[in-house]
Every structure is written in C-alpha cells, then in structure tokens.
C-alpha cells in the first residue's frame, strides 16, 4: 500500500494538530507553502477537502482506503460521520497508539508489521484489523518487543487513555472495553464535511 513518506511537520502546519501523524510541533505559525500567507476566504470545497485530508493523514490511509471506509459507514444505520470515525478508531494500529504503546500511528503500524503484537493470543500483522469490544492486545514476550514498547511508554504522547480502553503497564496488556464515543476521538475535525465531500463525488 502506498502511504505518505514526506515531511510530516509541513502537513500538520497546513491541517492543524494531527496527533496520529507526528508528535513534533512547529515554531512557525503560518500554514506551509507560498499560498499559506494569503488570507483568502476558503471555498466550501476546500473546507471539505481539508477535513478529508485530516482523516487521511492522521490515520495514515490512502485515498482508496478512506473511500472504502466511507462506503462501509454509509451501509450501517446511524450517523455516517460518527460510524466512519468509530471504524477508523477501532483499527489495530490506532488502538495501539491510543493505548500509548507507540508515539504515533506510523510507529504503531511498524510494531504490527514486525510481528510484535498479539490480539487474543494470535499474532496479527495487519494494521487495518478491526478490533472489537473484549479484544485483548498484548506485546510479544520477546525482550526486544517488550523493551521497545517500554521505551515508548516512558514518553507518553496523549494526555490520557480513552475510557473505552484500559492498559496494564506492568504486564503490557491492553483491552478494548467498548466502541469509542465521539468525545474521546483525539482529532479535532468535522466528520460531516468528509461525508459531504464523498457524497458529491
């Protein structure tokens, strides 16, 4: 899968705080690029595009993946925007990040790809794996895996673990207790604009 490998700080300057993309902060206040200095009123399309890009870059998705998630969310009864956020929040790489076992979602993805993560005692190497309530997430019993995660835990990124997750820092076990609620989504955005963006395509 193709994923963004360019400068992350430039993206966070343009789109705002993206906790899943990078933990760095820029000293510059204006958006990146030569057009960042202009104070033009943004069009409705550019507002929708910006919200969509926030989701893409924060969760590390390709355009095709995000489009598939939107289509899946539309098939479920209820608010499409909220269901889309819940689908993205319940991805394995995001759950690891929200538990504090990695500093960013790309780092969480690397933990999963390299086989450091067990879900219900089964090794899972698929980042997009959809976690469910009562799933138990563990770190491999190998010293290299444990030491890496302990190093990450000593420098927490997020202020607190959301209430739908719990973490045992001694045993390095995490548990999914429920589906995430909207107020516990760390990303500041308007998900309805994302749904509108795809409905007009």
UniProtKB/TrEMBL annotation:
The protein, known as: Small ribosomal subunit protein uS4c
Region (Disordered): 1-45
Domain Small ribosomal subunit protein uS4 N-terminal, first and last residues per copy: 3-89
Subunit structure: Part of the 30S ribosomal subunit. Contacts protein S5. The interaction surface between S4 and S5 is involved in control of translational fidelity.
Sorted UniProt keywords: Chloroplast, Plastid, Ribonucleoprotein, Ribosomal protein, RNA-binding, rRNA-binding
Species of origin: Gracilaria ferox
PROSITE patterns membership: RIBOSOMAL_S4, S4
SUPFAM superfamilies assigned to the protein according to its UniProt record, in alphabetical order: Alpha-L RNA-binding motif
Pfam families: Ribosomal_S4, S4
Function statement: One of the primary rRNA binding proteins, it binds directly to 16S rRNA where it nucleates assembly of the body of the 30S subunit. With S5 and S12 plays an important role in translational accuracy.
Entry GO terms, CC: chloroplast; small ribosomal subunit
Domain RNA-binding S4 positions: 90-154
Compartment(s) where it occurs, according to its Swiss-Prot or TrEMBL record: Plastid, Chloroplast
One GO term (biological process): ribosomal small subunit biogenesis
């Amino acid at each position: 899968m193709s994923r963004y490998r360019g400068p992350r700080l430039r993206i966070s300057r343009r789109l705002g705080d993206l906790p899943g993309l990078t933990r760095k902060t820029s000293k510059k206040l204006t958006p990146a690029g030569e057009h960042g200095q202009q104070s033009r009123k943004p069009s409705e399309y550019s507002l929708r595009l910006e919200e969509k890009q926030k989701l893409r870059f924060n969760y590390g998705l390709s355009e095709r993946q995000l489009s598939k998630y939107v289509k899946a969310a539309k098939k479920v009864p209820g608010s499409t925007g909220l269901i889309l956020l819940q689908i993205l929040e319940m991805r394995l790489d995001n759950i690891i990040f929200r538990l504090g076992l990695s500093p960013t979602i790309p780092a969480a993805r690397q933990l999963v790809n390299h086989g450091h993560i067990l879900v219900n005692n089964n090794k899972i190497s698929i980042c997009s794996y959809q976690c469910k309530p009562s799933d138990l997430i563990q770190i491999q019993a190998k010293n290299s895996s444990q030491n890496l995660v302990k190093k990450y835990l000593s420098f927490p990124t997020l202020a607190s673990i959301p209430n739908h997750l719990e973490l045992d820092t001694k045993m390095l076990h995490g548990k999914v207790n429920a589906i995430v609620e909207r107020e516990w989504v760390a990303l500041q955005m308007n998900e309805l604009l994302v749904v509108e963006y795809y409905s007009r395509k």
